[in-house]
User: Fold these one by one.
Assistant:
Number 1:
Amino acid sequence: MSLGTLDRSPPPFFKQGASAFSKLLLFSAIALFLMVADSRFSVTQPLRAALATALYPVQWLAMQPVRAVRAVGDYLTTLESAKTESQEASTKLLAQALRASQVEQLTLENKRLRILLDLREQLKVEGMAAEVLYDAADPYTRKVIISKGMASGIALGSPVIDESGVLGQVTRVHPLVSEVTLIIDRDLAIPVLNVRTGVRSLAFGDAAGGGGLELRFMGSNSDVLQGDLLTTSGVDGVYPPGLPVARIDRIERRAETAFARIHCIPLALVSGVRHVVVLAPQSSQIAPRPPESAPVTPVKKGGRS
Amino acid sequence: MIMRGVQQLLLPASPTFIWASLLAALLLDMLPFGRNPWMPDFMALVLVFWNVHQPQRIGIALAFLFGLGVDVHQTALLGQHALSYTALSFFATMIHRRLLWFPMSSQAIQVLPLFVVSHLVDLSIRLVNGDAFPGWSLLLAPIIEALLWPVVSVLLLAPQRRAPDPDENRPL
């Protein structure tokens, strides 16, 4: 039985508007156009930014229960766990004290040596703290949304780190928030350096989406060991050199392929991170490419000129 | 005088309530539950509901716009949810005259293909775009949505089932 409605105005008989099918065609066409424009020509950024700003109040509202739960959780931390944490922190501090006290001297020494060897000054790194608002609820990609955007001066392509390593890269900037693609996303690659051997390579997000990294294009006889630390190599002009990225977890050498499958575990807290630091991209500080020297005119064989 | 019972007439739906329910569904979709492929899409559910019950007010255009909003929130390709919601809304408009003559359990079975189509559109766009398959638990999403259909129907029709002439015995 259908339920009748006691509407006060009768439904229009003749003014029905466009038919549902024509509407379907129209909006499907617009959607397809938007998808092509977004993936191929990336011209939809203004529309996306406007929508993101319009959605911000709703997102803010959706965040409130999470914040409340976190606040209650923080408040209810027991004395026991607070004590443990404080003890861990002081142990960590002691372990770092020696290195920290040497930093000043090493920095000075490094500077003098660089002048002595006539090397370029090391790049300065500036950072800005931000809070992670939410993990993108998209099961297909690995992204987080952070609470700083264009209004705070976040630049596209900035590297993002947390307290233990590189987390990812800013891939979209909206007026109030930005999207960070994590290093474990399958579309992100990061140039790394094996600290033990000094070999540079590329780490990609795990294609299977297992939450790890994969070191690709390493020959099956290459010198890698389980537990090797990978840091950023700094050759890309995006990430500053020397930031820890991942640790090698598992190496599969197979007879049928020329490459080894090398799985790494990211050092940053890729799931459940709350506070991050957005660094300024290094490309702004890198010296411009030297002008091409005048092409040498090839001497014709046997010709006199 | 409105008769209760066999031929129950509903009060007109208030536009404020329709919009509030749509925004609430958007809010539910935005709650950070994590990345679960089986998570039901509340927005799709509420859009189908209003498309079936109020096709004059909530149509394909609005579904498209809400789809764009979900795309931006999920950092997905712009237009992907817009397309799947457009298809969803079109099929809901197609079946809206027939669907309400059935009992609630049959309605749930009849809206299941709609949600399956919507998720299929979504999945095929992802796969064409080069994303990995997120796992078979994705199949659960349309089923959960269809199971939620009776719940949503009761909840969203409740304001229209109120008494037309509230008195002391029937304040609501």
Number 2:
Amino acid sequence: MKSSAINPDAAVQHRRPALKWGVIAAAALFLPAATLALRPTAASDAALIAKARSVAANTVGDVAIDAAQSFRVVRGKQFKGLLVSGSGEVARDGAGPVHGCFVAAVNADGRIKVIPTIGTDNWEAETCIGVKAVSLLKPDAAGTQRLVLIYDAASPNAAAVEPVVLRWSGRLNTAQIDVAASDKASQAGAETIAEVRTALGI
Amino acid sequence: MIELSESVGVGRPNRPADVKLVQQLLNTHIKALAPLSPLAVTGKIDDATVAAIRAFQAKVVGLSKPDGAIDRGGKTIKALATDAPASSPDPGDQSAINNAAIDTAAHKIGCERAAVKAVTMTEVGIRGPFDAMGRATILFERHLFHKWTNGRFDAAHPDISNAASGGYGKFSAQYPKLERAMALDRAAALKSASWGAFQILGENHKAAGYATVEDFVDAAKTSLAKQIEGFGNFVVADPRLRKALQVRDWTTFARIYNGPGYKKNNYDVKMRQNYEVLGNQP
């Protein structure tokens, strides 16, 4: 018999999905969606990390990857991509090259954006010593994801700790530096993840 | 005027000192050569250096047929030397005056002339004595302005007065920051910036041989020779720096002089290499 209308088992089978989606819909009202999280990179990420290094080498000399400060980005069990911290020689307008840092935002599909940080643009006066800490921040009201990297840096005159805030919506490789948030954290003297959160009111 | 002892590039003699000089000069133009990466300053001719020479000839010199070679007295070396991002406000050839200032500084310090010149080459290669507008290169330190003004501007102007160091912004932001700070407290502002090729802080004006910070700044604005003179005085005033230059201890010198980033930028290695190059020159 092929008609589900007269097949009791089939009727039950139809009710189960309905019940399942109903439960999920009800749960969604009370449970938060899985949030993004950072996890240590795995051996299976080696190819993507190598690709990130290769893309970075187009603009950065003597690229070195900081494995300890590189992470997988996951939402629940879903792999969203990688954030790969690295450093090397970066060019500057009106000055010789400097040892700078970058973060490569690697989308799960392999698309990559290399984001120069210390040694470039707002931080072009500074040498990058290295990354101290990385943490996701609470998304803003519009759902834009945010992340902060805390760097040890140095000018010719002083050592400094520089917070650099990234933001993105959707794919990881759309990430960009949030200059206003980075400045706000810096001007508050924030040198730790907790201090950045306080400075940004989150 | 910067000149090569022999030609560099494809099919040329490629003396290590000349190749090194070309690599350093190309690095000061590397932004214009995008997407090329900065060159490793090795003194050895390689594919990356030849590619950068060709790119420079095509993009900057405007050669229709870049040949990847730089000949003595040719267009490419002239463009590399004269179009360097940092140039003196005096368009004349200052090399004789600069050399005299180097001789004087070396005499005061009690070190070899090549040692002072090696430091000068390294420091000039970082940002140069003057910016594209002919102003002395500066870096404004917000934590020093905080110190010199006892933090009284921290709340209203945290970007230029702050207990925490850092937050420098772009090179192009340095003069606007200095000018805003000068409007609040002129002397404190001038003390809170580092000046010229050697990036000596205004607060060290006495060590650099000037009774007031205004005199120090006026000298820094004048010429590279004046900046070299201030550098010589500054080294004499610091026994550790003086001793390091006398014995050519580049690591100690760079650690004290170039700050915490010296190792990452290989400043000690660059100084030693520059010294070795210069030491072999007549």
Number 3:
Amino acid sequence: MSTSPQEHTRWTRYAPWILLALILIFPFIFPSRYLLRTMVNIFFFAALGCAWNIIGGYAGQLSLGHAAFMAMGAYPTALLLLGLNVPPWLGFIPGVFAAVIIAFLLGHMVFGLRGPYLALSTLAFGEIVRILLLHFRDQTGGSLGLTIPFKGTDAWKLQFASEQPYYFICLALLGLCLYVTYKVHGSRMGYYLQAIKENQDAAENLGIDLANNKVRALMISAALTAVLGGFYVAYFYYIDPDSVCGTDLSIKILLVAIIGGVGTVWGPIIGACILIPLTEISNYLFGSGRAGASLIIYAIILMIVVLFSPRGLIALLPGGERSYRHE
Amino acid sequence: MDVEIVLQAIVNGLMMGGVYALIAVGLTLIFGVMNVVNFAHGEFVMLGMVMTYLLHLFLGMDPGVSILLVIPVMLGVGALIQKGLISRVIGQPDEAQILLTLGLSVLLINIALLFLGPDYRSVKTSYKLSVWAVGPVLFSVPRLLAFIVAMAFSGILWLFLTRTDLGKGLRAVAEKPEVATLMGINPKKMHALAFGIGIALAAGAGSILTPFFYTFPSVGGMFVLIAFVVVVLGGMGNIPGAILGALAIGVTESLTSQFVALDLAMLGVFIIFVLVLVFKPSGILGKGKVY
């Protein structure tokens, strides 16, 4: 790299603050509904990618069923709102507890498995939750899903006619996910997870409790994912088993992290900044009815990243190497 | 409960299980020889279905004939995919091959979606609704034919692996790649052959499914999950294990949908899957590759 270390320091010191300021004033400069929705989508998927990254990236335990945790946050939020008029900002809490408990149980069951076996069991876990959501249609609405009626702006219920409030709520949630990731990144647990990712047997020989650390990482990841599930209900007003618990969603979540850069704080944001606008462009070019087009692009990018830059696109940025932990 | 209903459910399950077996032996062969878990396997079932559908639509070809075209074509396609893509991730961390084949799966589904649209399409054969009664038990003719063809191809694979030099070469690479190389076997060629055979069998299973199963772009998803369950149940890389596992899963699915709830059929399958993974990840027939 031609730039000197000092320049890196200057770049990394000021750039995030300038960027943050731009993001904060963005909704006031560009009040376009469409642009803001795209931005909310970017924040949302970046946050999901961050949450996934804690278990999938830092700990290297590939989860292909993460959408199930989102459903665990989304369904209680929607049911409490529809049945008991509990506002989403309170109603998401039981779902988060449910997700953490399920993550604890699931983790203890499957984390003895490695590689493809683990990936397959998490895939099956996601499908089990989706099948159950479809089956108990009296409670969940089955494949028809649950629709939240919009009854005019009501801040108590997080219902807003304008796009700006959602923009800031989602930005705050992204901030939360980044903060948690940052904490994990620099903690003792972060080092343990890194060691587990590099070589589980060696990590165990060094006295690291594999099961305990992996399960804790999954619980943190599941909790954040469930919180985002609650936001999904407030923002999209509609959930069904395919939209919040499908394998497609699980794959999209991990794509964001992997394309950006696994095991880095900022990787998922880069991933979301690439994937979401790509979806928009492809919907514009091919029509949103042909949803296939954007996924074709995702798939090709994923394959290129796996073959040529397995550590994600962040590794190609100036100074990107430093986003990783020590190696 | 009625004995006849149970018997009927078991027969239906076995016939579907035969098709699962053909899909799963391909998956387990690829795993056994190359140590690659092919997440795109279901999409090759879909490609086989689409090819058969198109051959029927434009040429009026019967699925029983098109399978003889689909299998050699997919054999070549598989060898090319192995050379161009999969060979690059062999020997790399598991994540690389999982993500690469996952990407291939998403790619194939969405290419099919782009060209065919999301509609459910069916192949109408003259025997589509024919039924053959043996006492109280009814055999649907297309399902029975599918079962027989699937078992025949699984048997041919078994003979190929145990009786021919090429088949023995494949097994040698599966067992000890270094020693096989010393014996003058080119592991790269064997990998291409294994991947080609694996996905050709999956596509062949797709062909024989078309008379009684709708063809649509994401149809592979359910078959790949079942094939994974079967392969884990039988022991990864174990071909007789895969055939037995497939029949067992077919029956489990059929009994669950008959006696528990129609939409929970897959739940029984997945619960068995997770239990086997957690308590006996080497499969019910013991461990290791068996041919």
